[in-house]
Amino acid sequence: MTAYFAPTRDMQFVINELAGLSEVAALPVFAEQEVSPELVEAVLEEAAKLAAEVLAPLNRIGDIQGAHLNSQGGVVPADGFAGAYQRFIDGGWNGLGSPVEQGGQGLPELINTATQEMWNSANMSFALCPMLNNGAIEAIRQAGSAEQKALYLPKMISGEWTGTMNLTESQAGSDLSAVRTRAVPEGDHYRLFGQKIFITWGEHNMTPNTIHLVLARTPDAPEGVKGISLFIVPKFLVNPDGSLGARNDVRAVSLEHKLGIHASPTCVMAFGDQDGATGYLVGEENKGLAYMFIMMNEARFKVGLQGLAIGERAYQAAREYAKDRIQGRPVGRKSGDRVAIIHHPDVRRMLMTMKAQNEAMRALAYVTARHMDLARHHPDPAMRQTHQARVDLLIPVVKGWETELGIDIASLGVQVHGGMGFVEETGASQHLRDSRIATIYEGTTGIQAADLAGRKLSIDQGAAMRALIAEIEAAAGDLTQVAGDDLAVIHEGLCEGIRVLIEATDCLLASRDPNAVMAVSVDYMMLVGYVCGGWQMARAAQVAQTKLMTGQDPVFHEAKLITARFYMEHVLPRAGALLRSVMRGGVSIMALTEEQF
């Protein structure tokens, strides 16, 4: 397996030039941190060292060894994971984006997002542990009582304890209305009885305690999602002074054997096999669904980053293999030395497709992180609401579009390797296997598309989408202010993408058939993703052209310009094909009877 080196130069370009670091840094909440390009560079360089030197070398080891359940019901991670986790929390990385007053570093989500990309590129199985912890932290921070925040958050933010999300049951996957886990009140707490499946890092020995957030029903709860409540269920009960008490009645009863992410233990968790697991209500009874979405939105954005992260790792491996693998002569030559396959046009096509899509995904994700910072911390409530509307619109795109592309890019990585890509030792197949889960957990691609087309688009009659389109149109207009043949091609491509997005959006908004909308919702979501990616690539191209005119870093900026042009000529046209699917609706999709399948 090839090494991983974080693309810090590109990350800094996106953070500084596209995601508007200066605007985020100007927020009052970040005044004491003195957020600057120099700080960003220092943080990313240190994170890159941890990713390259500690996490990436364990990726293959974890894939081979996996995690295993011992005779005492504990989960033992792969070799090296516990030590790597200790180094991770010793460096303060777990609390990078958490408030200083709760023990975090207090840095913007924009910077945290870049480090999250690194952890997932280096070792996706490892990165899942702190990722789920962050979701649990956010839910307790927003919905927990003052006592719960004081008792649990400091050690969860430091990473001394980890957190999990316990939502899914065998009969209640995406349909949480079918949750059956019971929560019986008993004094100041509840006793939980039930079983949860697919619990990522639900059990392990890397930390002394794990804080489970569990969806369950109280005895008098109404049916459906309106009867779901959220509970804190610690692995070890926590005394008022923060010390650990007795072992709670919760345990892992088995681990799933999975296609990928072998080193991430996916547990079946049993609550209340004996006297009932002690749990503490978060917020109010029957409002667990709303609290759950706090966790889910945090996790969905981070899973979207996994699509980018795996795409970047697969691209790096394919690029290095293509430079080293000698095979064939250049096109048109029948004699002479054979060359590395990177000289062959079709290999170039694949590498450029991987590179361009990665850069588009990175820009869109980081720009979304910028809106998250502004939505959380802008002093003007109206501005917070405006930026939150953009976050709500883009999260299903980041999650759905980027994870689908992650699979495509990992598959191209196997293809670049040729036969060796089908051999485990190169690592190319692991990237493909690991990437496959990202379109499934935390809401499938279909669920993200349904959220975008069926809810986010219609909830305001398309206002948030039209605001986004207006911003893309402004970016297209800006392209005409800078001279250059490449920019002219990019402008033409982006304008066509805008036309496609407007037409597709108008079509869905005009539809009165919810089945027709849902039938083409994935096509619409992917179309939005490709156009938004083109928007960001166009912005990058304009910055690059301006820098080139003043002689700044010509190698880097010329590559940016050419990659953006490739995206417009070879990637963005996919949106036009998707438009045809959207316009034709779901007639043929829904036409067959059940017996005809």
Topology summary:
Layout: H1 8-18, H2 21-25, H3 37-55, H4 57-65, E1 68-69, E2 75-76, H5 81-90, H6 109-122, H7 124-143, H8 146-158, E3 162-166, E4 182-186, E5 189-200, E6 210-216, E7 229-234, E8 236-238, E9 244-247, E10 250-255, E11 266-271, E12 277-282, H9 288-324, H10 345-377, H11 381-417, H12 428-435, H13 445-456, H14 463-479, H15 485-510, H16 514-519, H17 521-549, H18 554-571, H19 574-584
Parallel strand pairs: 3-6
Antiparallel strand pairs: 1-2, 4-5, 5-11, 5-12, 6-7, 7-12, 8-9, 10-11
Helix pairs in contact: 1-3, 1-10, 3-6, 6-7, 6-9, 6-10, 7-8, 7-9, 9-10, 9-11, 9-12, 10-11, 10-17, 10-18, 11-12, 11-13, 11-17, 13-17, 14-15, 14-17, 15-17, 15-18, 15-19, 17-18, 17-19
Tell me the distance between the termini: 42 Å
The total beta strand count reads 12
Strand content: 5-15%
Gyration radius, in Å: 24 Å
What is the averaged pLDDT score?
96
CATH topology name of the largest domain, in short, is: Butyryl-Coa Dehydrogenase, subunit A, domain 1
**Whole-number count of domains:** 3
The name of the CATH architecture of the largest domain is Orthogonal Bundle
CATH class of the largest domain: Mainly Alpha
Structural class call reads: alpha+beta
Low-confidence stretches: none
Number of helices: 19
